[in-house]
Design brief:
Elements: E1 9-15, E2 21-25, E3 33-36, H1 43-56, E4 61-65, H2 82-85, H3 94-107, H4 112-121, E5 123-127, E6 137-138, H5 148-151, H6 154-171, H7 182-196, H8 203-211, E7 217-218, E8 221-222, H9 223-226, H10 229-244, E9 255-256, H11 259-263, E10 271-276, H12 282-301, E11 311-315, H13 331-340, E12 346-352, H14 360-363, E13 368-371, H15 377-394, H16 400-408, E14 414-419, E15 426-430, H17 443-450, E16 474-475, E17 487-489, E18 500-516, E19 520-530, E20 545-546, E21 563-565, H18 574-591, E22 594-599, E23 604-605, H19 612-682, H20 690-742, E24 753-757, E25 764-777, E26 780-781
Parallel strand pairs: 3-12, 3-13, 4-10, 4-11, 5-10, 6-9, 11-12, 17-25, 18-21
Antiparallel strand pairs: 1-2, 1-15, 7-8, 13-14, 14-15, 16-21, 18-19, 18-25, 19-20, 22-23, 22-24, 25-26
Length: 784
């Protein structure tokens, strides 16, 4: 068995032509892959094997599982004991199944130790949106404003809005044509207005705004003409009925749609998150898949570019989600991911049984095709058509007749790999999966697997203690202050059932610059909100609350019908603000520090606000990129040496063949000479003639030459053996250098050093110190 534990490669099977192991370069997956095969072709086993290899290589994955087969990734048993298999065996004796799995793995050079390595390498979880069988998922975050990278791109924002609205309306059975549907246009305009301004929404707020939209015109028509109030009320009721349904409550609970959390644990360990959606209705599946794909798209655009594989998005059975003609909500984000994800190191892997259900124009972006046994001639014809189109677009040679013959002869677990990075298609047999392939898991079985993990997710962040409202009794009129004192109003972000009250507080906005010799050069904005009192210490900046609000969002006018608390006397004096500004700068100089983490091995420092988990995730990517670069350099270093030795071996083998041929010819000539001499003797001559003596002499010389030719063959064979040994020595040298690369540090466990940076006084700029009116509902802040 050849060594398959190599850097940056996935062990998928064995070639049917050369009998070598099929080791797929993980970097090739950056250009995406498609797996096609009918039921029973071995498609699920191949895809699970690919995901197993990714996990071993510390590459996380998001797995969308419409049928329930991919949950088998949880069924890994390092001990390979019958009692481990027993709860999951459908039919037969668990002891026999365990034996079959042990023997099957052994034939492919695998064992329980490799299964343990798989389990230790990554965290595996099953999520069940709309159900608490597995880990529940909350969709509330799906209506939060997209990241700034998407909001600044009009096309990307329009795509996000379109798929969100289409999937939501599809869930309630409303015709969701983006051009003809009034409901779609209205909700899209609401999301456009709110998200463009960075304002978050939830479903309840969206329902409220659907009834009373924050706009007066839609296009060139006034709102009531375009969508009368009674009709808007009906739309709001339809959406409200969805939210009020007890079955919808499970959609609001659980972990938020946070892609980074689905890809990595809190310690930065890679995670394979399986989203099992077999229990959902078709409309619910489309709704969730569209939302998840949009979140992945937003996460992807927030990452840095890379040529190495960062993560995998796998979707099984994409029938109906990426059709050739229709445009369901899932198609647009999938198409965008296929076109753009490679620049960010996100590999897309799609699987299906029916080639005719795929949009081949979109899948022309896939660089690797795994093709198994197909069901109908129509499927084969469509597959050939698609492969020919891909070959044309990439400049590959395409032999349609040969490809047709290969597709016609595929058996179970035999796949044809067409990789644009390789010279020719490769026929191979898939390896034995380490996961026990028992078929789709039921919700009860998923519950058994996931119940021990419930409650083990990341702890909720501790709520920030709100600034207590001053005890002064509110007044209805706005206080009169000197014109030199600036006043601003913090925007109201939440609603209440009582009168809004404004409390006078001090707002300080600063800009702090940090720099060091370790390539740290960053500027942070710090806005603080502090209480004002008439006591000995009028403002204590150490007790201030950090306000996450851009200064440009402060309002110059209060909300109507609001009440105001009396301003402390010290805050009515202009000179107080200059003193507070100086105090703020001094407090920042004494107390503010930028705490960062540093990797001593890579000499990389974390970004401000970057958690240890995210920093370790980034270190993993950097280490993987360095590893891939080092492996590539090794390949380039050794490739000419191997080529030179292979050429020497080829010439040496030719010399052996040539010398052997000459030696054989000389033996024949010598035999003829001896034969002629003997013949002359037996013809009855009494005396040996001179000619007979001459022939005997020639024969003797032939024997000498024959011996020399045999020695030449031996020397040529020795030369072949010497070159072969040099190739083996070079291979051992290459493997040793490769192994040295593999034994580098582990970013997950490397002790990180803490870096604490203090700003200089010159690098502290106080931009604004002003009286700020903070809105409250009773004693609860209304700006959070």
């Amino acid at each position: 068995m050849q060594d398959f534990e190599k850097l940056g490669v996935f062990y998928l099977g064995r070639s049917k032509t050369s009998d070598d192991l099929l080791l797929y370069d993980s970097k090739d997956l950056v250009t995406h892959a498609v797996c096609v095969g009918m039921t029973g072709s071995g498609k699920t086993g191949l895809c699970i094997s690919l995901l197993e290899e990714a996990a071993i290589d510390n590459i996380p994955a998001i797995i969308i599982d419409p049928k329930g087969d991919l949950s088998n990734l949880m069924l890994t048993f390092p001990n390979l004991a019958p009692e481990d298999f027993a709860p999951w065996v459908n039919e037969g004796d668990p002891a026999q199944v365990a034996k079959e799995w042990r023997e099957g793995l052994a034939k492919w050079g695998q064992d329980g130790a490799r299964i343990k390595r798989l389990r230790d390498a990554a965290d595996f979880r099953i999520y069940t949106p709309g159900s608490n069988a597995g880990l529940p998922v909350s969709i509330i975050k799906s209506f939060v404003a997209p990241p700034e990278s998407i909001r600044d791109d009009n096309e990307s924002l329009a795509e996000r809005i379109n798929t969100t609205v289409t999937s939501l309306l599809g869930l309630v059975g409303v015709d969701a044509d983006p051009v003809r549907s009034r409901e779609h246009i209205l909700l899209s305009n609401i999301l456009q207005q709110e998200w463009s301004n960075g304002r978050d929404l939830d479903i309840a707020t969206l329902i409220q705004k659907a009834q009373t939209p924050p706009l007066t015109k839609v296009g060139v028509m006034d709102l009531d003409s375009f969508f009368p109030a009674d009709d808007r009320f009906q739309l709001a009721m339809t959406l409200n009925n969805l939210v009020a349904s007890p079955s919808f409550a499970s959609w609001m609970e659980g972990e938020p749609l946070d892609v980074q959390q689905f890809l990595y644990t809190q310690t930065g360990k890679p995670r394979l998150s399986i989203f099992s959606i077999a229990h959902l209705a078709d409309a619910e599946r489309m709704f969730f898949v569209s939302l998840l794909l949009n979140q992945v798209l937003g996460w992807m655009r927030s990452q840095s570019g890379t040529t190495s594989l960062r993560a995998i998005l796998y979707m099984d059975e994409i029938f109906g989600y990426f059709p050739p003609v229709a445009n369901p909500p899932s198609k647009l984000p999938l198409l965008t991911l296929l076109k753009q994800a490679r620049a960010f190191g996100l590999g897309i892997v799609l699987a299906t049984q029916n080639p005719v259900d795929l949009d081949y124009k979109g899948l022309a972006n896939a660089g690797t095709w795994f093709i198994g046994r197909l069901q109908t001639e129509r499927d084969k014809a469509r597959m050939l058509e698609g492969l020919e189109g891909i070959a044309t677009s990439t400049g590959q040679k395409f032999d349609k007749q040969q490809m047709e013959q290969l597709l016609a002869g595929l058996d179970k677990r035999i796949f044809l790999m067409n990789n644009v990075h390789d010279d020719a298609p490769e026929l191979f047999e898939t390896r034995w999966a380490m996961s026990y392939l028992r078929g789709p898991l039921t919700r009860a079985q998923i519950k058994v697997l996931m119940d021990p993990l419930k409650g083990s997710g990341p702890a909720s962040a501790a709520p920030v203690s709100p600034v207590p409202a001053p005890a002064d009794a509110p007044k209805s009129g706005r206080p009169v202050l000197p014109p030199e004192i600036t006043q601003y109003y913090i925007p109201v972000r939440s609603t209440g059932d009582v009168t809004l009250t404004y409390n006078p507080m001090l707002l300080g906005a600063t800009e702090i610059h940090y720099s060091s010799s370790k390539t740290v050069d960053v500027t942070q904005q710090l806005t603080l909100l502090a209480e004002i009192s008439d006591g000995p210490v009028s403002v204590d900046w150490s007790q201030a609350t950090r306000l996450d609000l851009p200064i440009g969002d402060l309002e110059s006018e209060p909300q109507p019908s609001a009440q105001f608390v009396e301003v402390p006397a010290v805050a009515t004096k202009v000179k107080s603000y200059a003193s507070w500004q100086k105090d703020l700068a001094n407090w920042i100089y004494r107390n503010q520090r930028l705490e960062l983490l540093e990797s001593p091995t890579l000499n990389v420092v974390s970004n401000p606000g970057e958690s240890e988990r995210d920093f370790r995730v980034r270190l993993q990517q950097l280490a993987r990129e360095e590893r891939d670069e080092a492996v590539e350099k090794l390949r380039q270093k050794y490739a000419p040496k191997f080529a030179q030795l292979e050429e020497r071996k080829r010439r040496a083998e030719q010399a052996v063949a040539r010398e052997a041929e000459q030696a054989q010819g000389q033996k024949v000539q010598t035999a003829i000479s001896f034969g002629a001499t003997l013949l002359s003797s037996f013809l009855g001559r009494k005396r040996t003639s001179l000619s007979t003596l001459g022939r005997a002499t020639t024969a003797a010389r032939g024997v000498s030459r024959s011996m020399k030719e045999s020695q030449d063959v031996g020397r040529a064979e020795d030369n072949v053996a010497a070159v072969t040994q040099k190739i083996a020595d070079l291979e051992a040298e290459f493997q040793a250098e490769t192994a040295a690369l593999e034994n580098t540090f582990d970013p997950q466990t490397e002790p990180l050093e803490k870096v604490s940076l203090k700003p200089t006084k010159a690098n502290i700029a106080v931009k604004l110190v002003t009286l700020a009116w903070a809105p409250y509902w009773n004693d609860k802040p209304a700006w959070e």
